[in-house]
Amino acid sequence: xxxxxxxxxxxxxxxxxxxxxxxxxxxxxxxxxxxxxxxxxxxxxxxxxxxxxxxxxxxxxxxxxxxxxxxxxxxxxxxxxxxxxxxxxxxxxxxxxxxxxxxxxxxxxxxxxxxxxxxxxxxxxxxxxxxxxxxxxxxxxxxxxxxxxxxxxxxxxxxxxxxxxxxxxxxxxxxxxxxxxxxxxxxxxxxxxxxxxxxxxxxxxxxxxxxxxxxxxxxxxxxxxxxxxxxxxxxxxxxxxxxxxxxxxxxxxxxxxxxxxxxxxxxxxxxxxxxxxxxxxxxxxxxxxxxxxxxxxxxxxxxxxxxxxxxxxxxxxxxxxxxxxxxxxxxxxxxxxxxxxxxxxxxxxxxxxxxxxxxxxxxxxxxxxxxxxxxxxxxxxxxxxxxxxxxxxxxxxxxxxxxxxxxxxxxxxxxxxxxxxxxxxxxxxxxxxxxxxxxxxxxxxxxxxxxxxxxxxxxxxxxxx
Length: 465
Known about the structure:
The protein has helices at 4-21, 31-48, 54-67, 73-76, 83-100, 103-112, 119-133, 140-157, 165-178, 190-197, 201-206, 209-215, 217-235, 246-255, 260-277, 279-282, 286-299, 305-310, 314-332, 335-351, 354-368, 375-386, 398-407, 418-426, 434-461. By secondary structure, the chain is an all-alpha fold. It is globular, with a radius of gyration of 23 Å. One of its GO terms (biological process) is carboxylic acid transmembrane transport.
């Protein structure tokens, strides 16, 4: 429909006005809670239909709370002064340096030289390279944009036809390694910090870099091993003989010797990851480590002021901040208590048993992805819906953030996953067929639930389930 956005915008605003000013405040809910509820309804419609840029919708939502007297400015915008926001900014800065200097591409290509130049070997190489690189860049789009052209070059060198089995499989191997494994590391994507930021303080403290990594080890193993066998089963060409590694060697030769900027960036990122892992030992917040790392890169002229304008996604940073603000404000306005009572009959059976949760909640998220395109928006809506029930769960709410971050990354239909669209655009939509994308997504959806189920005993040993 030509005017879909305009119609959706009008409907969203009208619903917000009706809820705020014309519907009587239900028993047990304050007028402030009604304002927050109304703004959330309007914002969701704006996000689902992309009426205006997502970050602008978020800022208007926060401002409406202040203008209509639901909460004070200090509460509405408090999230922007938290460590979570600064680690996102710092992490994106480190990732920008790794991409700018060519360090990430060099690491990926170098790893590929250790594997056979056939479908099985290069699929495994893309899995390995992506998993190693994932925690270094907290943004999916540059990783998919960088990895898929490498996969296309390998596909061409191996003589695979566009949209054929081999071409589709290598494209998906690049996405699987560089994008899917983002859920394995807290620092691998800004959305992990966004979902973590919606949790209570105690649950957030449980999700430091090291704990997140440990909690996800069984899932990561299942996703990598299961994903490798899935892609080779579905897409391995009949004749899978090794060929020359000339393409990879040529790409490395074009990069030349490792530059001063690459060496500095590699050292800074390595030190940052060590400090993130040992955050509780050094007692230095992860955000401070990230900001110091970026400052060092600026001081040594690896990053310049212009990079902060062009290489950092400020609209994403602002959007994440606005959605994270919902947690505190909903509690402050009394909305969480009211929603808990209203939604209890439907939600309580799902969260009453950890095994039921890790099966049913991903399925709910998969279904939501047919409607809500944005990965962060989907995860935020699910987390906010469960927010009133965190105190009733027999397991830590930290697990909700884990389930959400693994389950929003589906690509059954092309529009469901923007980073994968970026990767596809980087190779002119010339590698994977729609059928291949759908089959691999269905496989991932099953593997994700299996991986989460296998994580449960570990989580129980850790005392969080």
